[in-house]
Design a protein that fits this description.
heterodimer; A: alpha+beta; four-stranded antiparallel beta sheet; 4 strands; B: alpha/beta; 13 strands; 26% strand
């Protein structure tokens, strides 16, 4: 203030027009930043979700693999059980057939089922009864049949019949 | 720092308002840094701040936030005083309810506080940044002469005459004269003169009045006046030696050879009023006991109203003064003051 009685008003570039312009641009920029921030958040959210989903997928796949393993194991067990069941039925039938083979005059005291054979212990009135009525059918079933006799106290003969099925021949038969 | 950067980006708009008797002169200067880009002037025939004027100013001030509105203080209650002692000025301020401004710690100009408030109130809608005293304008306009030998400096305005006497930059005497008030006073006296058919005694004003001249019918006295005319010429020649600056000479010779323009009765009356006021002020200066009176030889007039050559003639012929007139546009000078305030 050199000559003037009053001091000049403080000058600012923020005139009414400028204020309007600045407000407009501020709002626009704010909206842009908010949109950008929202997109960033969404992007982050989607990335996190994607990671979580991938982890879940991985876990599910792993679980599926595990389940598949278990299923295959169970199927194997099932097959095995079916096989055993079938075998048991076959065995049952075989035993039933076996007992059907035994004539009334021969008495079995013990029977041992082997994997590829059968051992029968019993009493027969004589060798002929045994040879004709039991050994003949056994020979038709088993490949090798061995019989041994020793006398019992009542005059009958105790016998031990050992019968084997050869695996190779069995395979050929099955074919 | 940032404000300076913004300031450099924008143009500066200087709006200078000069209030006249029945009009407002608006001088607008647009600056880019320190260079004047454009300037324009418009006059509004209105007695108060009008809507049209406000809109005109606002159309320019809206262009830049760095706009400055300057007003020349036209109130009658203002003046200038000798010295710049703080204690003395504070006493003066309290006594007269004025606001003062010290000028180069040599002298001070003052204005009525209410007048300043009134100006600010008048321009409330557009605002006001600077209110300048006519003395500041006068001193700035004659800065090349103020620090010289004793001389009287006069600023001619539409309704005011601002007068100051300086010697080597020191203020000796100052008066701010209202033409309207004094005009009424003069008219009153003139009417009394006509009614009483009597001469007016201006002896207390220690000067020569035109009335005394007009009743001269003595041929010897008329011859004396012719001699005074010769004296004027001699003075002019002396001035060539004393004032080596060509400008004054040009001004003086320009006025001497100037063809008299068609004068209306009103302009004659106004010039007569101005002459009376100057004569009266000079008389007061010579008779003032508080000031050490020195003989005034040279008068420098800043003509802001395009006055007629009569005034110069009156002053030269009746008061034996060397009159130097410089035409001035008060609006432009106001703009110069604003630039000084802004250090441009």
């Amino acid at each position: 203030m050199i000559y003037s009685y009053i001091k000049p008003r403080k000058k600012s570039i923020f005139t009414e027009d400028m204020q309007l312009l600045v407000t407009f641009f501020t709002i626009t920029l704010l909206m842009l930043f908010l949109t950008y921030a929202f997109l960033l958040y969404k992007d982050y959210s989607f990335t996190t979700q994607k990671k979580e989903s991938l982890a879940k997928q991985k876990a599910v796949l792993s679980h599926v693999d595990k389940l598949e393993g278990e299923i295959s194991k169970i199927e194997e067990q099932k097959n095995l059980s079916e096989k055993i069941f079938t075998k048991n039925i076959v065995l049952k039938d075989s035993i039933s057939n076996l007992f059907d083979l035994v004539p009334v005059r021969i008495t079995l005291s013990r029977a041992e089922l082997l994997e590829n054979g059968l051992i029968l212990y019993g009493i027969t009135p004589n060798k002929d009864v045994y040879n004709f009525m039991l050994q003949a059918p056994l020979r038709s079933i088993f490949h090798r049949t061995y019989s041994s006799f020793y006398p019992a106290q009542n005059g009958w003969l105790r016998f031990v019949s050992t019968n084997y099925i050869d695996e190779e021949e069995k395979y050929i038969d099955e074919k | 720092m940032l404000s300076r950067l913004f300031e450099a980006l924008y143009n500066k708009v200087l709006v200078n308002i000069v209030v006249k008797r029945a009009s407002f002169d608006i001088y607008i200067e647009i600056l880019s840094k320190k260079d004047v880009v454009s300037h324009l002037q418009k006059s509004f025939d209105t007695l108060s701040v009008s809507r049209e004027m406000i809109e005109y100013i606002q159309s320019y001030t809206k262009e830049s936030p760095y706009h400055y509105i300057a007003v020349l203080n036209m109130s009658a209650d203002q003046g200038a005083i000798v010295g710049c002692e703080k204690k003395k000025l504070q006493e003066f301020e309290e006594k007269h309810a004025v606001q003062y401004m010290c000028h180069e710690k040599k002298w001070a100009h003052y204005s009525d506080k209410e007048a300043i408030k009134m100006i600010m109130k008048s321009y409330k809608e557009i605002g006001c940044d600077y209110i300048f005293s006519p003395y500041s304008l006068l001193v700035d306009f004659f800065k090349d002469k103020v620090n010289g030998p004793t001389a009287m400096f006069v600023l001619m305005q539409d309704s005011f005459v601002t007068l100051a006497i300086f010697e080597q930059g020191e203020l000796l005497y100052a008066e701010h004269l209202d033409m309207q008030t004094s005009g009424e006073y003069d008219d009153e006296i003139l009417s009394q003169t006509i009614e009483n058919d009597d001469n007016i005694d201006f002896s207390d004003q220690a000067g020569i009045d035109l009335e005394d001249v007009s009743v001269l019918d003595n041929m010897e006295e008329l011859e004396d006046l012719d001699d005074f005319g010769d004296i004027e010429d001699l003075d002019s020649i002396e001035e060539i030696d004393e004032f080596s600056e060509n400008k004054d000479l040009e001004e003086e010779f320009h006025d001497v050879v100037e063809e008299p323009s068609p004068e209306t009765e009103s302009s004659f009356n106004e010039d007569y009023q101005r002459f009376s006021l100057i004569q009266s002020a000079l008389g007061n200066y010579y008779t003032d006991e508080e000031t050490e009176s020195q003989f005034i030889e040279n008068v420098y007039i800043a003509d802001g109203v395009s006055m007629s050559s009569d005034l110069k003639r009156y002053l030269e012929e009746e008061m034996f003064l060397n009159v130097y007139i410089r035409q001035t546009n008060i609006g432009t000078e106001l703009a110069e003051l604003v630039k000084m305030e802004l250090s441009l």
